[in-house]
Amino acid sequence: DLYCPVQAEASTMERRKAARKYRIPVERIEFIKLLLSIDWSPEQIANVLTSAGAPVSHEWIYQYIAFDKRTGGKLYRHLRQGHKRYRKGQRVKAPTIKHAVSIDERPSVVDTRERYGDWEINTVLGKHGSGAIVTILERKSRFYLIKKVVSKSAVEVTKATIEMLMPYKHLVHTITADNGREFAGHQEIA
Prior knowledge:
2 domains; 4 strands; 7 helices
């Protein structure tokens, strides 16, 4: 028989997933969810359960929270503010923005800040689903426009951008944004 490293690794991973030490009983998972719902941290839960003879690692709990979030669950909302560990794990790559224009194609006059009408846009996310803020800066004058939106979705950001810039539409030559998906409505804004 020939040794195939890819097949060997796949077999090892399957055995590892099926190992008893990685199987968490349903009752324990329900208890973990209960403790998360009353704002216990994964570290606290892991310490208490392991001490009680029902071992579970805090990393497993974070992975469970990440899986729950990907499948529409809200357990991640119970993590402490500023704690971003739930983002660990498999992440689906965000689709690229359709018909995006590279910053390299931006007119060179924008870099000089010699004219009015070249804007920069950004978003600031609020804590745990409390909305976001869209900020638009005119580069030469440093004039700021700010609007709160219910979410950082492309639809909300596009709507807010159009509302804020409409009174200044005669003074809009360019708008520079990062590659965040919230700016996917750039053609509608244009």
